[in-house]
């Protein structure tokens, strides 16, 4: 069992590479600081589809096709696709990827889905079960609002702690060898429930999960913040990010120097009114696949710890007075 | 890559065992032919909870606890839990398993979730990433009706092709070695969409997926129906079962002698009015964990091929006129 480190972390002995990656983003995301980084920018929220749900399915299909093109692979080269999204019964992935004809493993990790897929895919590669595997996810502002909150036409007020669901998607192709950033370790998170009941404060609900996974990661590997050029969370937003910095500080870790959050990076909050920042499966997916993996490829960073963060609620659980459990999965990405 | 067989199948070189398993079932399931097989029978649909969704969460928690007791393990011995269900955002698993404090990988394969979890868990064990991993799933008639169909109070008529969602749950504990039925191969299914649009004929929608996976399994391993004492699908029901037998016959395979479907086994259709039989994540889960694994342990069968079948629809996709894609994942279970 020498692949295991401590309770939650495994290290890969073989060479697990991200041989290609691609991103899709919407117009609002294009206007942000990372606007130039995305492979495909949608012309509008519909992208020639009749419903936003069909648009989100198209995002999953097109982002995977773009990643396959960059890898110079065909879908039949993939041994597995690991994919999911926020829509009820994960229809973004199910309908979007149905024509790929690839063995399909549906996953649901809320907004941690990208890193859950990357983690599972890396284990399937390193375990000798696949030569190539893809991890795909997406979110769409309009499908998320309609499903989780209010019809867009209602024009509801947003609370200051609310975040803005990113319209975006990302796909990575994992490979047994070759070029591209390397996945060296993963730390799989437990479900953490600190009793936060405000579904409009997801950052606050997810921060304890990110904290728990980050501490487990450092503990399992005997590492600290200085071992990474960049520590990145998925979508804690402005409020969750501050909470995580404080929680880590109390634990004796200063992450303030090299820590960022995709939800804080994707929008220019001076220009657009997104309150506490971006969120959604597509937030970490589009930032990872649009900006971070390219930065690793170009050796801008040598070692990045990315932590996908998810809130495991549904409208039914909130209506029934339940709290919002969080989950966070981490992966170490290396330029070497 | 000698673990791989053909396009969709992998074989395990190590010893992957199901060291324990447990099942939960409702009153209607207790009255069926397998009524004596389940570990826990719920006193009623509520099981002392305020809402049916909380009951379903309790089912996941209790079934995993029962399996851990039988394995003489604690939750901290588990390296991973793979779990999901039919509820929006998989809240049955998320809320039910939050107190386990085990690294959690959420999965969504509709009613194929049990076999998806078993497949992934077996790969994580054989890949050297875990010593013990659990796969858990559930369904509940009342949560499924309220979410997918009509409020129960409405008393809607059911079409003759409709199936009855099983109130049941199952958990398996996978182990790197030891006693218990062995998992020798898995065949992971592709999403199959033959254009069936009737959400009240799930068996018809899922049969082509079961057909595709079964043919892939036979092709990948050079096997045929005679290599198994029992071939078992998850929840095709009476109609889907007939379709699968016919489709296989046209392909040159006679499965009529040793093929059964959990949805046909779980209820006594002479006595209770379940139309085309049982369905839901809990159908294959409770039958597998209540009856089949015990039969393997007692050498009633030597080799069983179990195929979890799922329909990847949501109420939104149906309202938008989409068809019902199906998926099917297979696993070979051996008594030796």
From TrEMBL, chains A, B:
Name any one GO molecular function. Answer: acyltransferase activity
**SUPFAM superfamilies in UniProt:** Thiolase-like
Would you say which domain of life the source belongs to? Answer: Bacteria
Gene that this sequence comes from: spoVAD
Protein name (Swiss-Prot/TrEMBL): Stage V sporulation protein AD
Q: Which Pfam families does its entry note?
A: SpoVAD
């Amino acid at each position: 069992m020498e692949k295991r480190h401590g309770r939650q972390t495994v290290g890969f002995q073989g060479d697990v590479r991200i041989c290609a990656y691609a991103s899709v983003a919407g117009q609002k995301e294009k206007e942000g600081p990372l606007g130039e980084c995305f492979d495909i920018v949608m012309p509008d929220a519909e992208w020639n589809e009749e419903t936003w749900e069909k648009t989100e399915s198209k995002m999953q299909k097109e982002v995977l096709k773009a990643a396959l093109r960059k890898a110079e692979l065909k879908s039949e080269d993939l041994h597995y696709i690991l994919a999911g999204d926020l829509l009820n019964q994960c229809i973004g992935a199910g309908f979007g990827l149905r024509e790929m004809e690839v063995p399909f493993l549906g996953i649901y990790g809320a907004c941690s889905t990208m890193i859950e897929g990357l983690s599972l895919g890396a284990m399937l590669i390193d375990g000798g079960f696949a030569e190539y595997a893809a991890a795909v996810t997406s979110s769409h502002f309009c499908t998320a609002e309609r499903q989780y909150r209010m019809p867009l036409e209602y024009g509801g007020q947003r609370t200051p702690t609310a975040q803005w669901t990113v319209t975006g998607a990302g796909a990575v192709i994992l490979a047994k060898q070759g070029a591209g950033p390397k996945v060296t370790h993963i730390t799989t998170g437990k479900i953490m429930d600190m009793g936060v009941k405000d579904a409009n404060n997801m950052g606050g609900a997810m921060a304890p999960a990110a904290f728990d996974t980050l501490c487990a990661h450092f503990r399992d590997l005997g590492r600290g913040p200085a071992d990474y050029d960049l520590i990145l969370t998925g979508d804690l937003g402005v409020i969750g990010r501050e909470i995580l910095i404080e929680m880590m500080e109390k634990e004796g870790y200063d992450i303030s120097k090299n820590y960022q959050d995709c939800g804080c990076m994707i929008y220019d909050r001076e220009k657009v009114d997104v309150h506490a920042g971006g969120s959604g499966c597509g937030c970490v997916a589009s930032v990872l696949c649009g900006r971070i993996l390219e930065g690793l490829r170009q050796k801008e960073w040598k070692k990045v710890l990315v932590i996908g963060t998810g809130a495991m609620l549904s409208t039914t659980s909130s209506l029934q007075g339940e709290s919002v459990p969080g989950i966070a999965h981490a992966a170490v990405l290396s330029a070497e």
